[in-house]
Specification:
Layout lengths: L4 E7 L2 H12 L5 E8 L3 H14 L4 E7 L6 H8 L8 E6 L3 H6 L2 H8 L16 H10 L4 H7 L13 H11 L3 H4 L4 H12 L7
Helix pairs in contact: 1-8
Length: 204
Amino acid sequence: MTQDIPTILVVEDVLSEGVLRKILHHFHPKFSIVSCLGREGYGFIKKNLPAFNRAASRSCFVIMTDLDDNGCAPTLRKLWHSESFHPNLLFRVSVVEVEAWLLAHRRGFARFLGIPRDRIPVDTHNIPHPKEFILELARQSPREAIRHALLPRQSHRGKVGPDYNGRLLEFVKRHWSHQAARQHSDSLDRTLKACAAFRAVFGD
């Protein structure tokens, strides 16, 4: 029988949380999410990673962060935590940003925006700034509601539109297929394999 593992999530933002919940739901009832921490950017994760690693002897943690400009995932791990992780802590890095995992479901995301699929690269890891790339694609969308939600207002200082996270979360919940996306994202594929292989280790 598949083990029901009480699991604490730690993420950068609400979009990452939505993606991670969708992924772990695929392995239900293996992971039982009891709470989610963070949603305050990568700084919160980096600062508290040693504490999470110590707490993993008592609780299971699944932690996800963006690679951003840190070179590669192994480099980021060493920069943030030079010691080995506890077996009950699963640390995953989305390359380059979690938005790249959404784009990796090329057919689904193209339909979401109403644009041709060939405007999305086959290898989304080669997109240097996936969030900015999504905004550029949104400008090409014939759907006014998409443009209004995703694109920033000239009169505001925000880098994204008023319902950027809301619309992308809707896509994740209703349309995003991680199985389709993993074909075009190595980091997503590795994350799914790590989740499948994860086993909790607790003493008596």
